[in-house]
Amino acid sequence: MEKSDFYFTKYPNVLLDKVMPLIGSSAFKVLSVIIRNSTGYQKTGDMISLTQFEEQTGLSRNTVLDSITELVDKKIIEKLKKHNSFWYSINEDYLEILTKNGSSNSAKKGSDSELLKVIKPNLKLVQNSNPLKKPLTENKKTTSTHSLSKDNFQKICNYWNELFGYTIDPDNQKIASQIITAMARFSVNQLKMAMFYRSESEFYRKRVPYLRSRPESFFGYPETIRNDMQRKPENVYTYKEMVHKVTTENLDMNRDFQKIDNFQLNGQPLWRLKKQNAS
User: Judging by beta carbons within 10 Å of its beta carbon (0-12, 13-18, 19+), is residue 279 exposed, middle or buried?
Assistant: First the structure.
């Protein structure tokens, strides 16, 4: 049999076994371009333009940008600004955690456990939001890796506490593990959207108020998170929607609307129609 003239790119098994089920098809295309342009040329990363991504994936620019955001938020890739472009590479530290356990059944468990060890020492701010609890003694163990994981975990916990006044105890491994699992399935922006919509939802306020501020009823259930992402309040508007309402219903932007400070949708601010004008 004649030797094949095809060339090959080394593709880490963990990306196929563990990462592919966690990301969308467009994000996987973008990830493959990064692999092709880095590992495919025996490099650790590469400067890749948006035009290159569009040409190599067949995706629109907006879809490419959304996919890059998804991969960065889920800690799968690293994106660094260099001159007028960006350097993309695989986040090998995070992938190493995912590959520590050989079997697919134990890998998820192991990755949660390893991430918890890294994240828990940095949760002083989270615990301090409850004045009734004793101050936690900061874990002496230090690490120089997974700062993205720690930062994202803390952002999610702090945002939950801001919305619901509920302290997520970092020593409660069950809750912390549920948050890690949710982080693997959803981006930080998606989780914040679901939390914000949940906090504003009439469904939780009137029908199931006992579930509204319980983190275990949120982070432990992916379907609940997806449902909460769809609960956009009727009195909350994007800038474009607000302008339309102002011009068509004789409303005043400054008098009738209030800017929401603790949440932005896809990086864009939102406005709330004041109650006395909601009819």
Answer: exposed
